[in-house]
Amino acid sequence: MILNPVGSTATVHEGPSANATTDPAAMQDRFLKLLVAQLNNQDPMNPLDNAQMTTQMAQINTVTGLQTLNLTMQTMAEQFSTMQQIQGISMIGRSVLTEGDRLAVSDKGEASGAFDLSGSAADVKVEIVTPGGVVVDTLALGALEKGRRDFDWDASKYSGNKADLRFRVTATNKEGPVPVTALMHSQVVATGSAGGALTLTLATGDTVNYANVRGVL
């Protein structure tokens, strides 16, 4: 918006403002001072048009309204970021479920994993495999309904590097294969932020977005 005083030029002196360029109240105050100055210095033979003044007032109301909305959204974003950080700190030490096929092995040699079945299956089996794809053991789980399932496996007798073990799940019914999503258990060791989103650093060394966590144990 531009105000063009008619006749002599008026100078408006304003006091210092800590946030004069973004504070809606300060913007509106400047506008009103300029408008008063314009009215005081207008040419009596060519007064300011009422429609023009109304348009200018509508413009400043729109601008200050948008500025107020921007400040409100910025405040909400900062509050949300703070809440995310607090939530992230509370996640440290907790175990979460994320997509992946790595087995979680405890100090006692107990391995665990999980998976999501997209539909009912007549036959479900879990194969424990090495990184090279060699099958170490097979768990026959039989018929299962749609949903999330957990499984455990005794890894104490496995002599290789237990941290490298993976698993794969196959499920079938009379129509054919049933889609399966492998889920792994992992402990949260640290939190962070990327692109304004909360991230979790897992004991496996992976970093995942909190939005991708499928469950908290």
UniProtKB/TrEMBL annotation:
Alphabetical GO biological process terms: bacterial-type flagellum organization
Domain FlgD/Vpr Ig-like: 106-173
Signal peptide residue numbers: none
Highest taxon listed in the record's lineage: Bacteria
Region (Disordered): 1-22
Alphabetically ordered keywords of this record: Bacterial flagellum biogenesis, Cell projection, Cilium, Flagellum
FlgD Tudor-like domain sequence ranges: 83-214
Residue ranges, compositional bias (Polar residues): 1-11
Pfam families, per database record: FlgD, FlgD_ig, FLgD_tudor
Job of this protein: Required for flagellar hook formation. May act as a scaffolding protein.
Family the entry assigns: Belongs to the FlgD family.
Listed name of the protein: Basal-body rod modification protein FlgD
